[in-house]
Design goal:
The chain is of the alpha/beta class. The protein is built from 13 helices and ten strands. The protein has a single domain, classed as TIM Barrel. The strands form two sheets. It has an eight-stranded parallel β-sheet with strand order 1-2-3-4-7-8-9-10. A two-stranded antiparallel sheet has the order 5-6. The structure holds 2,6-dihydroxybenzoic acid and zinc ion.
Amino acid sequence: MQGKIALEEHFAIPDTLQDSAGFVPESHWSELKHRIMDIHETRLREMDKAGIEMMLLSLNAPAVQAIVDTKRAVDVARRSNDYLAAEVAKNPKRFQGLAALAMQDPDEATREVERCVKQLGFRGVLINGFSQAGDADMPIYLDDARYRGFWAKVAELDVPFYLHPRNPLPQDARIYDGHPWLMGPTWAFGQETAVHALRLMCSGLFDRHPKLQIVLGHMGEGLPFNIWRCDNRNKWLNQPPRYPAKRLLAQYFQENFYITVSGNFSTPALLCSMQVVGADRILFSTDWPFEAIDEAAKWFDDCPIGESARRKMGRTNTLELFRLQDVLGA
Ligand code: GRE
Ligand code: ZN
């Protein structure tokens, strides 16, 4: 399929580059480094070959979220956003931007998201899970009361918010002790991010902001397969949920979430997701440079779904959700 749009697509700046080391063997680091720093050469060639018209670019992970010194987190986020805006300006029909934000300082994040959307023209936000602010051992999740004003601003700006994975902190990752291969994208990313998304649903965030739209990668981090059980465990007890939110979790999942296929090029997982959230809420993505663009595109272009669903997921859902008509046409 030509004209695809992809939206979990990462770059790095020198301050955040090292965060992506360690996820690939030493032998592949120089290639990964090139792929993540490059925007207009290798990346664009791969996009052309794969029928990807546009990428929405975001900073790598965990980057800003893991900078314990709040002042530095604020500085890195601003510099990353300014850099990204300048790169997007070189080729805006092929690249658009998602904001990085220092959630360590909620007031600053609220100001910066407005600057990114209104002045830099970014289409949304991408945040790498919980943030560490001042205390490296204390993860701060996005359902925290300190983010009430921030979420009101995101809802007012009416832009999507991509909740991207990061690894749990060591004290919260003891279940993986002795099994380091289960950290990162193998399993820990998905577990961490699925629970974070459930926290948002349970907190009542979407009762306060019913139009807010959260994007999850990796085919919804396991939630399409499991959300039914979240709502229906021990149903014979006939007890209402104990969380503050008003509705069933699956209702929020179906009305306040989109999922992308980034890094999860599995046809059974896609077919399950299409039954749970529907083709209108699934978006093509690759997860470059951690996954291969050609593999993602070949799987997506060939997988056994109808052409109308492919068109929606490959292009039009994303075009409408991120309001890209001004650069891509209707
Ligand atoms: C990602 O951004 O999704 C990612 C990383 C590191 C390793 C693998 C991966 O940040 O998919
Ligand atoms: Zn990613």
